[in-house]
C-alpha cells in the first residue's frame, strides 16, 4: 500500500494510505484532504486537483498528457515547473512515500 | 415520421431478457417528472441492470453501473444517438452533433476544440463580468422583494451573460430557450412532448442555424473562438458552425435549471442558506451540491456496439441503455444521506455533468455562473421564502421548474 505525504500551504503534514491503482486525487478525496477539490471527478477537465510534486519524485512520475498540460495553465494557483494534476498520478508500489504540496487555492 | 416511429417503438417493446428485472415505469411521463425519487429507488432496488417494458430498453440507475457505462464509450457508444432514437435505424431529426453524438476518434478532435474554448484560462476572462452581473441582478431583485425565481432569476441571469459571452446578436434571442427545450425533449421517446417540440421547431432551428455562422458572431466571443480554430486547421469551416450549435443547444437551459435547482434548494432548506451566508466561499460547492441533488440533466442513452456483459447479464449488440444520472447521484451505495442537501458535502464524483470522455465540456462555465450567483445571494440575502404554488416544467431530459414564486429579504 503506497502512502502519500501531503503538505498543506500552512506547512501542516498529513500522511495517508493509498491503494495501488487509484489516483493520488482519489486517495486524497477518500481521506478528505481539504486542499483537493477534484470537481470533475478525475476526468482531467477542471484543474481543481492541482499539486506541486516534491522535486525528488518529479522525474519518477509518468509524463504529462496534452490535456493536463493545457489545464495546468489555467489552474487557480500559480503554475510551477513541478505542477501536476493529482488525478493523473496513478499510484503504484514504486511511488510509496510520494510527497505532494497543496496550492493555496484550487478555484 | 412521427406515426411510423411510434409504431416502430411499439413493435420493439419486446419482453424482458431472461433474468433481468423488468419495470413498468415511464421515465418520460408526467408522474415521473413530478416526483422521480420513488421511481429512482424502485429502479435501483430492482437490480444493477433493469429492463423498461414501456420502451423496450435497458436501464442503469445505481451509481457504479452508471459510472461504468459512461466510462466505456467504445462499448456504449454515442454516435447512434444519446436519445431513444437509434441513428442506425432512424434518421436524426437534425444533423447529428459532431461532439455529443460522436465517438472517438472523431469525438477526440472536436472535443479538444471546445475544451480549449471553454478552458480554465478562458473562464478567467469572463469571471469578473459575470460576478458584477450577478451582484447587479440580486440588487435589482432585492428592490422588488417578490418575484418568480424561475423567470426573473434562473432564466434572467444566464440570459444576461451567456448570449453576450457567445457573441450573439441582440435580435432573436427569444428563440434560445425554446430551441434548447426542443433539443432536450428530442432525446426522449416519441411522446407528445417530443413530437410537438419537433413539429414547432422550424423557426427556432432557422434562428440557431443562422447564428452559428461566422458573420453573426461578435469577435472575442466563444462562438468566434470556435471559428478561429477552423483557421488554425483543427476543424473544417463546415464543422465550426456545428460546434457553435452544440454550445447554443447545451449552454443555456442547463444553467437555467442548475441555478433554478440551487435557488429551490436554498429556499426549501433555510439552514443551508444560513450556512452559506456564514461562509460565502461555500457558494461554489452549494451550486455543485444542487447539481447532484436535483440533477438538472436527468438521463442520457447509449447504444451497445457489441455483445457485452454488464452486472452479470449479457446484453446484445445494438441495444439502447438508459442511464439515470439523477438516480446515481442519490444512490445510498455511493452517498451518505443522499436525500439531504448539504452545502459542505464532498461532491466530487457526482455524475450530474456526466463522466468520462463526454463529461460536460461547459462545466467550468456552468460553475462560474452558479458560484457567482450564489455568492451574491450569500452576501446580500438574509432569507428566501416560497410564497406561492411551485410548478414543475415538463421536459424529457431536463428537470426544473416552470414557476417558483419567492420573497427575499436583504441582509
Ligand atoms: C448545470 C449546467 C449543466 C449541466 C447539468 C450539464 C450536463 C451535461 C451532461 C450530463 C453531459 C454529458 C452528456 C453525455 O454523456 O452524453 C454534458 C455534455 C455537454 N455539455 Fe453540458 N451541462 C451543463 C452546462 C453546459 C454548458 C454551460 C455548456 C456550454 C457552454 C455545455 C455544453 C455541453 C456540451 C457541448 C456537451 C457534449 C460534450 C461531449 O460530448 O464531449 N453544458 N453536459
Ligand atoms: S479532478 Fe478534475 S482535473 Fe483532476
Characteristics:
heterodimer; A: 107 residues; alpha+beta; Ubiquitin-like (UB roll); five-stranded mixed beta sheet; 3 helices; 5 strands; 20% strand; B: 411 residues; Cytochrome p450; six-stranded mixed beta sheet; three-stranded antiparallel beta sheet; 17 helices; 12% strand; globular; disordered N terminus; binds protoporphyrin IX containing FE; binds FE2/S2 (inorganic) cluster
Structure description:
- The complex is a heterodimer of chains A (107) and B (411).
- The model of chain A has no long low-confidence stretch (mean pLDDT 96).
- With 107 residues, chain A is an alpha+beta fold.
- Chain A is built from three helices and five strands.
- Chain A has helices at residues 24-30, 55-58, 66-73; strands spanning 3-7, 13-17, 50-53, 83-85, 98-101.
- Chain A has a five-stranded mixed beta sheet with strand order 2-1-5-3-4.
- Helices cover 18% and strands 20% of the residues of chain A.
- In chain B, helix 11 (222-231) runs antiparallel to helix 12 and helix 15 crosses helix 17 (363-380).
- In chain B, 48% of the residues lie in helices and 12% in strands.
- Chain B has a six-stranded mixed beta sheet. A three-stranded antiparallel beta sheet of chain B has the order 5-13-10. In chain B, strands 7-8 form a two-stranded antiparallel sheet.
- Chain B has 17 helices and 13 strands.
- Chain B has one domain (10-410): Cytochrome p450, CATH 1.10.630.10.
- Chain B is of the alpha+beta class and 411 residues long.
- Chain B has helices at 2-12, 30-34, 37-46, 63-70, 106-117, 120-144, 150-166, 176-186, 192-199, 202-211, 222-231, 239-250, 253-268, 270-278, 283-294, 325-328, 363-380, and strands at residues 22-23, 50-52, 57-60, 76-77, 146-148, 299-304, 308-310, 313-315, 320-324, 381-386, 391-393, 400-403, 405-410.
- Chain B is globular.
- The interface between A and B is medium-sized, with 20 and 25 residues.
- Bound molecules: protoporphyrin IX containing FE and FE2/S2 (inorganic) cluster.
- FE2/S2 (inorganic) cluster (FES) is lined by residues 25, 38-40, 42, 44-49, 85, 87 of chain A.
Amino acid at each position: 500500500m503506497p502512502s502519500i505525504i501531503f503538505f498543506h500551504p500552512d506547512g501542516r503534514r498529513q500522511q495517508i494510505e493509498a491503494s495501488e491503482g487509484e489516483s493520488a486525487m482519489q486517495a486524497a478525496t477518500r481521506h478528505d484532504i481539504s486542499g483537493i477539490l477534484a470537481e470533475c471527478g478525475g476526468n482531467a477537465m477542471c484543474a481543481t486537483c492541482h499539486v506541486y510534486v516534491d522535486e525528488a519524485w518529479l522525474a519518477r512520475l509518468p509524463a504529462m498528457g496534452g490535456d493536463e498540460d493545457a489545464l495546468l495553465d489555467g489552474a487557480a494557483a500559480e503554475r510551477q515547473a513541478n505542477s501536476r494534476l493529482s488525478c493523473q498520478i496513478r499510484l503504484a508500489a514504486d511511488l510509496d512515500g510520494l510527497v505532494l504540496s497543496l496550492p493555496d487555492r484550487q478555484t | 415520421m412521427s406515426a411510423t416511429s411510434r409504431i416502430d417503438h411499439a413493435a420493439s417493446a419486446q419482453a424482458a431478457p431472461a433474468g433481468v428485472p423488468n419495470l413498468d415505469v415511464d421515465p418520460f411521463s408526467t408522474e415521473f417528472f413530478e416526483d422521480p425519487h420513488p421511481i429512482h429507488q424502485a429502479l435501483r432496488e430492482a437490480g444493477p441492470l433493469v429492463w423498461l417494458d414501456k420502451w423496450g430498453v435497458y436501464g442503469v440507475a445505481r451509481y457504479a453501473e452508471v459510472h461504468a457505462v459512461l466510462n466505456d464509450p467504445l462499448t456504449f457508444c454515442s454516435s447512434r444517438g444519446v436519445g431513444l432514437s437509434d441513428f442506425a435505424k432512424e434518421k436524426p431529426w437534425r444533423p447529428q452533433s459532431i461532439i455529443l453524438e460522436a465517438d472517438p476518434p472523431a469525438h477526440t478532435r472536436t472535443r479538444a476544440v471546445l475544451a480549449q474554448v471553454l478552458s480554465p484560462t478562458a473562464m478567467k476572462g469572463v469571471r469578473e463580468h459575470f460576478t458584477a452581473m450577478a451582484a447587479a441582478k440580486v440588487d435589482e431583485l432585492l428592490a422588488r422583494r417578490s418575484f418568480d425565481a424561475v423567470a426573473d432569476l434562473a432564466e434572467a441571469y444566464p440570459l444576461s451573460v451567456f448570449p453576450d459571452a457567445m457573441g450573439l446578436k441582440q435580435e432573436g434571442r427569444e428563440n434560445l430557450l425554446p430551441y434548447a427545450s426542443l433539443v432536450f425533449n428530442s432525446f426522449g421517446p416519441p411522446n407528445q412532448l417530443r413530437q410537438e417540440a419537433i413539429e414547432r421547431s422550424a423557426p427556432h432551428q432557422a434562428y440557431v442555424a443562422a447564428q452559428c455562422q461566422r458573420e453573426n458572431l461578435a469577435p472575442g466571443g466563444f462562438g468566434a473562438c470556435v471559428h478561429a480554430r477552423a483557421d488554425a486547421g483543427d476543424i473544417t469551416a463546415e464543422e465550426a458552425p456545428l460546434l457553435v450549435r452544440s454550445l447554443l443547444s447545451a449552454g443555456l437551459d442547463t444553467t437555467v435549471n442548475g441555478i433554478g435547482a440551487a435557488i429551490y434548494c436554498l429556499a426549501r432548506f433555510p439552514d443551508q442558506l444560513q450556512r452559506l451566508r456564514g461562509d460565502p466561499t461555500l457558494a461554489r460547492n452549494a451550486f455543485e451540491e444542487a447539481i447532484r441533488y436535483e440533477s438538472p440533466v436527468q438521463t442520457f442513452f447509449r447504444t451497445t456496439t457489441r455483445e457485452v456483459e454488464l452486472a452479470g447479464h449479457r446484453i446484445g449488440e445494438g441495444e439502447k441503455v438508459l442511464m439515470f444520472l439523477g438516480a446515481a447521484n442519490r444512490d445510498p451505495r455511493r452517498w451518505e444521506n443522499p436525500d439531504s442537501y448539504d452545502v459542505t458535502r464532498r461532491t466530487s464524483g457526482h455524475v450530474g455533468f456526466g463522466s468520462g470522455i463526454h463529461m460536460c465540456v461547459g462545466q467550468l462555465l456552468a460553475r462560474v455562473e452558479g458560484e457567482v450567483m450564489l455568492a451574491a445571494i450569500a452576501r446580500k440575502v438574509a432569507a428566501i421564502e416560497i410564497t406561492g404554488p411551485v410548478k414543475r416544467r415538463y421536459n424529457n431530459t431536463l428537470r426544473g421548474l416552470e414557476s417558483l414564486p419567492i420573497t427575499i429579504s436583504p441582509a
